[in-house]
Write a structure and sequence with these properties.
Elements lengths: L1 E5 L3 H13 L10 E5 L4 H6 L4 E2 L9 H17 L3 H4 L13 E5 L5 H8 L3 E5 L3 H9 L6 E4 L7 H4 L5 E7 L7 H13 L1 E12 L2 E2 L10 H10 L3 E9 L7 E7 L3
Parallel strand pairs: 3-9, 4-5, 4-7, 5-6, 7-8
Antiparallel strand pairs: 1-2, 1-10, 8-11, 10-11
């Protein structure tokens, strides 16, 4: 059993965000309420890659270098959880197929392959050579286009002028330094088609300077997204047992 922080209804949040944008404010003062969650924790296990984060940028090693060194253990952890379980929170919010889908930080391609199996056209973004190599070994490159690109700019993807019906960005927000988060959100929101959805899930982590992990409160990411004009569909912060760090799930929508 874990604790979940839930915002007020998305309608109230979006309305308040619009008012605050007009006053150049943020939504950080929205109250959060703790409720009990009795659902499975597969998605929590999926997005907790490490319990480490760097308290400031100068202490962090490069995330691509870190994943090159730890690719095998990361892939083993991710592949131990089925994509359908890890992404169960999105079951009712996926677009109808065929849709154009972008998986950012695709890793070994588990989620990209799952999205392709649903009939979508999938573009997978992965900047780490070792993670992409695991995807090839697992046969995850058939009918999926892979691009070596990275946030915050996603320069290669953006240059194609494509607009996506759905974007998945799992387990990578804690790798972005604080000054990279707003540009990253702007890049992703700008890649959505009208009515398209952006799904974000990550672990907030615990203080440690041993890896490329930054403190990344879910409320901060939500504030940035709302100020970019995205609409909130879902926000959940899970506090799992055994002193694990909070995990965050945010689903956003581009206005029609």
């Amino acid at each position: 059993m874990g604790l979940v922080e839930r915002l007020p209804s998305p309608e109230d949040v979006n309305s308040n965000a619009a008012k605050r944008r007009s006053r150049r404010g943020t939504t950080s003062e929205i109250a959060l309420v703790l409720v009990l969650d009795r659902t499975a924790v597969a998605s929590i296990q999926n997005i907790i890659i490490s319990l480490s984060m760097a308290p400031n940028a100068e202490l962090a090693v490069d995330s691509i270098e870190w994943y090159n060194l730890h690719a095998e253990s990361v892939v083993d952890r991710h592949e131990s959880i089925r994509a359908t379980d890890a992404n169960a929170w999105l079951r009712k919010d996926l677009p109808k197929s065929p849709a154009l889908v972008l998986d950012v930080g695709a890793g070994s391609g588990r989620d990209a392959a799952w999205l392709r199996s649903l009939g979508h056209k999938v573009i997978a973004v992965e900047p780490c050579p070792e993670m992409a190599a695991h995807a090839r070994r697992l046969g995850r490159c058939h009918d999926i286009e892979w691009i070596d690109d990275r946030l915050p700019e996603l320069a290669k993807v953006s240059s194609r002028n494509s607009r996506f019906d759905f974007i998945l960005a799992n387990a990578m927000w804690m790798h972005l330094a604080p000054d990279e988060r707003a540009p990253a959100i702007a890049s992703l929101v700008g890649l959505l088609s009208p009515g398209g959805k952006l799904a974000i899930a990550f672990s907030e982590g615990t203080p440690d300077a041993t890896g490329p992990f930054f403190e990344c409160p879910g409320e901060e990411i939500l504030d940035i997204a709302l100020n970019e004009g995205a609409l909130l569909v879902k926000f959940r912060k899970k506090l799992p047992a055994l002193m694990a760090p909070p995990s965050v799930q945010i689903l956003l929508r581009q206005p029609n």
